[in-house]
Design goal:
Layout (H helix, E strand, L loop, with lengths): L1 H30 L11 H14 L4 E7 L12 H12 L2 E7 L6 E8 L6 H17 L3 E5 L6 H8 L6 H19 L9 E5 L9 E5 L8 E3 L3
Parallel strand pairs: 3-4
Antiparallel strand pairs: 1-2, 2-3, 5-6, 6-7
Helix pairs in contact: 2-5
Length: about 230
């Protein structure tokens, strides 16, 4: 009889604890009524981001959806009310993309992707305001019409005046040239294509060399002529 009483008490205590924990979770969610949003970029923005990333290479960092107020601020010397008015005009706006220097992350230029919504009078007024803000802050603003697809060369022409992509283009050309040479070079012993490999250990660790693609059947290797 005593065991039945003890078991009943334990069950009641467990139920009370579970109800209390459930109530705490509900209360906690009620105090923080938030949920995760959709992906940061729209499909058109994601497509452009991929092309922009290929175009920029290592010459700049790409940031997306940055508040205008995190990039520019009202000038010093304004009265408190004028400063607040100027700040309020930019506080709810953001840039689609920013190109920043790789070392200091200082802003190089801003990029706006203009879709069909930018054709409305309200949006055009907003775009003109943002353009004037960037002019005043001496931040180049690049406006790119939204498309279903983008051409890398066209994007290069847009950003070339603002960042040095010459070095990146040279590296790109060298990479293409190297791949082309690799596809043409054949092994003198078995006539298989030669490929470029990197030594992982030993005295030549980190150095590249020509190796037969038929390895391990053919172990012919050659140094890469500088």
């Amino acid at each position: 009889m005593n065991w039945l009483f003890i078991a009943a008490v334990v069950v009641v205590i467990v139920v009370i604890i579970m109800v209390k924990l459930s109530h705490n979770r509900v209360t906690e969610h009620a105090d923080y009524p938030y949920q995760k949003t959709d992906p940061l970029f729209s499909p058109a923005e994601r497509s452009f981001y991929g092309v922009l990333n290929q175009t920029v290479g290592g010459n700049a960092k790409i940031l997306g959806k940055v508040r205008v107020a995190d990039v520019v601020v009202p000038k010093k010397g304004l009265s408190r009310s004028d400063w607040q008015k100027a700040f309020n005009k930019i506080s709810g706006k953001h840039f689609d993309f920013l190109l920043c220097s790789s070392d200091s992350l200082s802003v190089i230029c801003a990029i706006e992707l203009d879709d069909s919504s930018h054709q409305s009078k309200k949006r055009q007024k907003r775009d003109q305001f943002l353009k004037e803000v960037c002019n005043a802050a001496e931040i180049p603003l690049i406006q790119v019409p939204a498309k279903s697809g983008y051409v890398i060369d066209e994007v290069k022409e847009l950003i070339a005046p603002h960042i040095n992509i010459k070095e990146f283009l040279i590296q790109e050309e060298e990479s293409i040239s190297q791949k082309s040479a690799a596809s043409e070079k054949v092994c003198p012993e078995c006539s298989s294509p030669m490929v470029i490999r990197t030594a992982k250990k030993g005295a030549n660790a980190g150095k590249q060399f020509w190796a037969c693609s038929a390895f391990p059947k053919c172990k012919h290797i050659e140094p890469i002529q500088e």
